[in-house]
Amino acid sequence: MNPISILPTGIIQQHNTEDTANNRQRLAKKIAKLATQGARLIVLQELHDSLYFCQTEDVNAYQLATPIPGDITRFYSKTAKENGAVLVTSLFEERLPGLYHNTAVVFDSDGSIAGKYRKMHIPDDPSYYEKFYFTPGDLSFEPINTSIGRLGVMVCWDQWYPEAARIMALKGASMLIYPTAIGYEPQDTPEEQQRQRDAWITIQRSHAIANGLPVVSVNRTGFEASPDEKASGIRFWGSSFVAGPQGEILYQAPTDEETEAVVNIDLSRTKQVRQWWPFLRDRRIDEFEPLTRRCCKN
Questions:
Q1: What pLDDT digit, counting tens, does each position of 230-259 carry?
Q2: Which of 103, 130, 277, 295 is most buried by its number of CB atoms within 10 A?
Q3: Has 192 been annotated as catalytic?
Q4: Is 46 a catalytic residue?
């Protein structure tokens, strides 16, 4: 693995439709565009091949699941190889009939599967009924080795947990990456919507600061109606962003537009920032045992 100092990183923030083939072809064109602009790493949003089907509990949605490897992974393998870029994808994995995961698959620039990560934290909230579909991941928080570095890939709800980011950092991740699908409840007030979006950005910037690592978070955008007429649907808030190892915003996408961008990430800054702010050195690991408990109060 050759060390890289400046990593041109592409992000794709897209509005999806129910036409999975169209979603995939649009992504392929955007991947090619970013590759011609120099991107060596390209990150897609969570469950990017379809609408966000977890708004309701519907067994018919299982037909969207794919084995890994399978036809869909062959498509993205070919796309990664043709464009010479490392590609972070997010797929609905059918491990066995009746056993499914929300899985990030990373393809190296030669088209090979460098590794995968199964989403560990699974939400179960109104319009986000993921526990109906996904079994919690069992591959731990393990960075994925690629030709451009060791990538700490997690998925969406994982981004709220500092422990997950810290474990990835302690295992040698060169950056943290979060494919995401998150948005507003349309009936929330504008003030509440803003608070939620700001919290989402802030928690991930804090992971960058606490671990001295760049963070790449790629969200979807646009409104997706709920199949349940009694529900309000989700307006995904976009705002995909890249932060540096001090939490500084290197790039942020609009809330409501499809966006592709290439952002240069200086990976060499991690060592310097960690020397300035030696948070890893000063951790009191002898006092952290309570973190392994569900609760510390009887």
A1: 889 999 999 999 999 999 999 999 999 999
A2: 103
A3: no
A4: yes
